[in-house]
Amino acid sequence: MSSAALPRVSGILLHPTSIPSPYGIGDMGLEAYEFIDFLQRSGQHLWQTLPLTPTGFGDSPYQSFSAFAGQPLIISPAFMEELELIQEEDLADCPAGDGKAVDYGTIIPWKTKILKLAFEGFRQTKDEDLLAEYEGFVEENAFWLEDYALFMSCKDKHEGQSWLSWEEPYRQPTKADKARMKEEFSDDMRYYYFVQFMFFKQWNQLRTYANAKDIKIIGDIPLFMSLDSADVWANQELFRLDSKGYPLAVAGVPPDYFSATGQLWGNPLYDWKAHKKEKYRWWISRIKGQLKLTDYVRIDHFRGLYEYWSVPAGEETAMNGAWEAGPKDDLFHAIEKELGKDLPIIAEDLGIITQEVRDLRDRFGLPGMKILQFGFESQGESSFLPHQFKTTNCVCYTGTHDNDTTKGWYETAPEYAKDKVRCYMNTDGSSIHWDFLRTCLGTIAAYAVIPLQDILGVGKEGRMNTPGVAAKNWAWRYEKESLSHELAEGLKRITRLYGR
Question: Catalytic residue at 428?
Answer without folding.
Answer: no
